[in-house]
Write a structure and sequence with these properties.
By secondary structure, this protein is α+β, with helices and mostly antiparallel strands. The chain is built from nine helices and 13 strands. Helix 8 packs antiparallel against helix 9.
Length: 322
């Protein structure tokens, strides 16, 4: 194993077998030198292009990596195939508290080469980031992601065990240059990953039974935005959102939002406004995103966020069963 390279620890035997079959000989290690950072910049450009606003420059990556942050790379032999950038920060929710009391790790950028996606590389980059946070004594890792991208929600919420109770409207502006906005919108969910919480441990170590739609329906969990299918096969959100009842509700999103953006931009814009209104409404009622489910339901491949209601901070709530 190369110096500084690591495989992710604390895995089940099944995980290790799966890693070898899917990840192959890919290793994850921390980057330290300017030349490595320049390679990380080139990797970013495979997704973000040459827009200076969207790509973190090499000199900034170097500073982050050497002053409390990290730049993690997934290496396939001598080729860099994935990169994850994070840095130490504080929350502005209670600005009068000492910085140490608000300390968190901010995960800013993750990119995997297209031909290497679907092999668990992003998942294992995040697991190594978690190991770093725990070593530094940090309980919370936070980042943002587009709530309409089911593949991101599947990783962030379902596999990693992050939660969300915050919706940011057009946080990166409305310009589509650089890829931060889609159809003039850059709405994001804030993912909070409480890395030492029992629920996260159970998800990562396979000690928790994943719950599906059947389990939630048995608990009388309603779908508050039941969709229909249009003539082109795309899911269409309802005009009216049902009033949530009980402590659990399901909210549906498209399986492949970017395909909707490409094929039917008007419908994609409808989905954006619908999701924005729905999420902000549920968050205002003290619901928290605690799970994500993708299943065949009523003959269709469908995706749902699970919202759990609570009037207490997440640290004080046991969401182990959802």
């Amino acid at each position: 194993m190369a110096d500084g390279a690591v495989y992710i620890s604390s895995q089940t035997a099944w995980d290790l077998v799966w890693d070898k079959q899917v990840m192959g000989d890919i290793q994850i290690r921390a980057l330290r030198t300017l030349s490595e950072m320049q390679e990380a910049v080139a990797l970013q450009k495979t997704y973000w292009g040459d827009d200076l606003e969207s790509v973190i420059p090499a000199h900034m990556l170097l500073s982050l990596a050497n002053y409390g942050g990290h730049v993690l790379a997934a290496m396939d032999g001598g080729q860099m195939v994935g990169v994850l950038v994070g840095f130490l920060g504080t929350s502005n929710d209670e600005p009068n508290r000492p910085a140490m009391a608000n300390l968190q790790l901010v995960s800013k950028r993750m990119v995997v080469l297209p031909e290497f996606r679907g092999r668990g590389i992003g998942y294992h980059l995040k697991r190594e980031q978690r190991r770093i946070a725990i070593k530094q004594g940090v309980r919370l890792i936070t980042w943002t992601f587009d709530p309409l991208l089911a593949i991101n929600a599947q990783l962030n919420i379902r596999k990693l065990g992050a939660i969300s109770d915050s919706y940011l409207e057009d946080v990166y502006g409305t310009s589509e240059e650089g890829g931060l906005a889609t159809l003039g919108s850059s709405d994001r969910l804030v993912a909070d990953w409480w890395v030492t919480h029992r629920r996260v441990e159970e998800r990562l170590n396979g000690n928790r039974t994943d719950l599906g739609l059947k389990h939630y329906f048995e608990a009388h969990t309603p779908i508050v935005n039941v969709t229909q299918v249009n003539s082109t096969g795309n899911s269409v959100p309802p005009d009216v959102i049902l009033d949530p009842t009980g402590s659990l509700v399901l909210a549906e999103i498209p399986i492949n939002y970017m395909a909707v953006v490409r094929d039917d931009p008007s419908l994609a814009r409808i989905w954006r406004i619908h999701t924005r209104d729905l999420f902000k409404r549920l968050f205002g009622m003290q619901y928290v995103v605690t799970d994500f489910i993708r299943e065949i339901y009523e003959g269709r491949d469908r995706a749902f966020y699970l919202f759990s209601q609570s009037n207490r901070p997440f640290e004080q709530v046991d969401f182990s069963q959802n």
